[in-house]
Amino acid sequence: MCLRAAYAALALLLLSSCGGGSGGGGGVPIAALGGSAAGSPAGPSGSPAGDTAAEQSLLPRSSAPAGGGNGPGDSGTGTGGASSGTGTSVAGGDDGSGVGSGGTGVSTADAGIGSVDGAGSILVNGVRYNTDGATVVLDDVPGLQLGMTAKVTGPFDSELTSGSAQRVESAIDLRGPVTSVNGGQGSFVILGTTVTTDDATVWGDSSGIGNVSAGATLQVWGLPSAPGTLRATRVEVRATGTPILSGVVQNLDVSARRFSIGGYVIDYGQAALTSGAGGLPLANGVLVRVRSNAIGAGQLVASSVQWWYPAPLANGTALQIAGVVTDFSGLGSLRVLGVPVNASSAKISGGPERSVGNGVKVVVGGVVSGGVLQGNRLKIQNVPGTGGQPSFSLTGQISTFNSVADFRIKGQPINASGPNVVFVNGSASNLAAHVGISVEGNRVSDGVLFADRVTFQ
User: What's this model's pTM, rounded to 2 decimal places?
Assistant: First the structure.
């Protein structure tokens, strides 16, 4: 296998990616910030209690955080080619359908992009990365879990089937008190940012929007979309810690060292700034992650401002990204994760061409020219009001087996007791500790992946 340099593989790592939808990853119950789930009660869906977050993680931290709570570092610059090299792949929910031009590039997927199996690998945008020996730098949490956004750096082959992760980084995207909840719309507001959910959202420690209440502190991983909005890929309703806010920079005042994200003003006069790829300046329209030590009235005094998974836009860069469409004025002019896209010649899949528009989750791949991603493929993942078909996938040996309704792969709780679960090459009676299986499902609630299909290896 010839590994080629992946320029950047930002991988919003929601761990799993067997199907469309913004959530290709299964859910793992996650403890409150930096702590453990020990002592937390089992949820209504029977989520297990008493495990630490590290025990539940699909990929544990192997290196201390960079410090100061800062998230993933800059993605480096480089070129692809036959020789091996490193890159960054951003992903968050892909079905391995080959979106993109192949070769090297940044691949970005929305929710649920891979699964960690017993051999220590993660599936990112259909590329299975071996994580043996990888440096895993996680801020805020001790282990990587389904639905978390992440950046994976490492080479992958020209067929986009396998790779080798050299570095995995992840950080929380939003944390703070809930000011309002719209249960009918499946949304809530934190720090002036409207958080929307969909069928692919991983609920790490609750059963859904019904468990979100005003005044509670939540932490969220998700995809920044239109200014002041975030599409959640993972939500935890039991959280503590200092404020974190990610989104689009607006109303930048360099003299006063202020800007806004959604309904909040950010004072970055004393903040440490971590620039994006190529030393990009802070500017309106840039995606950033802000950390603060305190919340004021509609204002955060930032302790750090970091560029949020910057995508390389050098001419000739092969790039595939997934996120929510914004600034749509036709297939020839739209944005995904802030990246300008021309998809007028792209092959459309996942739904009719007419369904593409603002708020629609897509994966688009192609080559960058003049700062614009010239898309040759576009896959529709989720259309507001119509939904999508998320699919979460896990492969590996069963590490703990209590019953068909309660077993684990790499610490991930799984329930395969449903009446419509399909078993391939075996039956429910064959499930046991140390048995190798692949599990697919379309729902993660209370951190439990509810299986639709179980295949024995």
Answer: 0.77
